[in-house]
Specification:
By secondary structure, the protein is an alpha+beta fold. It is built from five helices and 16 strands. The chain is elongated and about 65 Å long.
């Protein structure tokens, strides 16, 4: 009998040790994540909050989303926990431990997750997030592209959907040849920047100033500016 009890206790210890090994640990990177973060899409026209906690769950640690998240991002209904091993991805897991979303840190305090069927999702702390961008419909309309006070082109930003989560735009006749040959065809809001996409080449990015004008970034001696008409 004594031998059986000893064997039983030994078995419990082995199972307990194995269970303890299965439990994720909170490393320094994971500890830094604990708290409330902004959860959004790339355009930040869908924003809610995710609160990461240290309470253990069956698959990791507890994460809570605000009541709007499920309507904006239905996939959060499947999230049962989170893990963030050192030097690895931040994973949101379902109740079977499978990844629902996988984030990688792209900047200090900003995590990005390209997600099939959803697009690119972001997690960022309040300091990194800043103010929410203006809705696209507030930027649609007539604009002038100027450089050091000289009008180079008149542009129309429309709300007509185009490729790659962007909107169609047109360039009016009479544009400066240096701008006309770029043939801008699409625009979009990317986080807090206004992007104009030429037919070929990299998009031009603009940031808004306090007066409602948008200056191309990075700045240069011959600064390009978008001004509302």
């Amino acid at each position: 009998m004594i031998r059986l009890v000893a064997i039983g206790l030994a078995g419990i210890c082995i199972v307990g040790a194995a269970f303890a090994q299965m439990q994720p640990t909170l490393g320094e990177a994971a500890k830094a994540l604990i708290g409330t973060w902004e959860f959004s899409n790339a355009d930040r026209d869908k924003i809610c909050t995710a609160t990461f906690k240290s309470d253990p769950t069956k698959v990791g640690f507890k994460v809570e989303f605000d009541k709007n998240c499920a309507a904006l991002f239905p996939l959060v209904n499947d999230v049962a926990g989170w893990v963030f091993p050192e030097n690895d991805l931040l994973r949101l897991l379902d109740d079977e431990g499978k990844s629902v979303v996988e984030f990688s840190e792209v900047e200090d305090g900003i995590y990005e997750a390209p997600t099939p069927g959803v697009g690119v999702l972001f997690l960022q702390n309040a300091a990194a997030a800043g103010a929410a961008p203006k809705p696209a419909n507030q930027l649609a309309g007539e604009w002038a592209l100027v450089r050091t006070g000289k009008r180079l082109c008149s542009l129309t930003l429309t709300m007509q959907a185009s490729a790659e989560d962007s909107y169609a735009m047109t360039m009016k006749p009479g544009c400066d040849p240096s701008i006309a040959r770029l043939n801008f065809t699409r625009w979009r809001i990317d986080r807090d920047e206004l992007m104009l996409a030429p037919a070929r080449g990299n998009p031009w990015r603009f940031e808004e100033d306090d007066n409602g004008a948008w200056h191309r970034v990075p700045e240069s001696a011959d600064q390009f500016t978008l001004m509302r008409q």
